[in-house]
Amino acid sequence: MTLRQSLTHTDVGATVAAALTSLAGLAGCSPPAAPPPPAAPPPPALTFHLTATIQDLMDAQIDPSADALWDAVAFIASTRGVEDRKPRTDEEWKAVRTNAVTLIEAANLLSMPGRLVASNDPTPKEGELNAADMGRRIAATQAGFVQLARNLQAAGLRALSAIDAKNPDALMEAGGAIDEACEACHVTYWYPNQRRPAS
Ligand code: HEC
User: Which CATH architecture has domain 54-190?
Assistant: First the structure.
């Protein structure tokens, strides 16, 4: 056997031994520590482009979607009899669900800091703040404003669960909670000086 062949033979032996050791390690209780994962790159800075005002969101998303949820269930007694209004077909449930989704996500839009209250500032009605004062009040108590938007979102999520369960009674109750959530924010930020808040 030449020196070279002998070395090669020894190398093979060492390799086999190393492989056996690592197999033993795998089978045992303490596998070799995995190398630390590479540090995650910092997340890209998120930039949102806020275009709609709070007033726009109320008119375009929050008010119409809430109206649709409230209108979806009703028990109306009249001279013509009693109307038990509720979604019945899959399409009707789907339509009302779309409104719940809109309302829930609009609450997030409402929570974004830096959103203007209104693009113009018409003379406020009695008891109402003007837009500039509302904006200052919201900025000064942003966490409170966000909490009130969260309450609306939670009420919207109750409506969504009711819809997914096709439960008109639960949807009616969620409608009440939605109404309270609207009002709680309006009396705090919109018409805090009004004795009897408009419904
Ligand atoms: C987190 C606070 C908040 C919640 C919750 C909220 N609103 Fe508002 N809403 C406001 C503020 C602030 C204004 C005043 C903005 C303005 O009109 O200048 C307003 C104004 C409005 C207006 C008048 C819009 C206009 O054209 O002047 C309507 C209608 C309205 N809200 C409906 C609703 C309904 C319906 C809900 C519940 C489903 C709701 N809002 C929930 C804060 C809120």
Answer: Up-down Bundle (1.20)
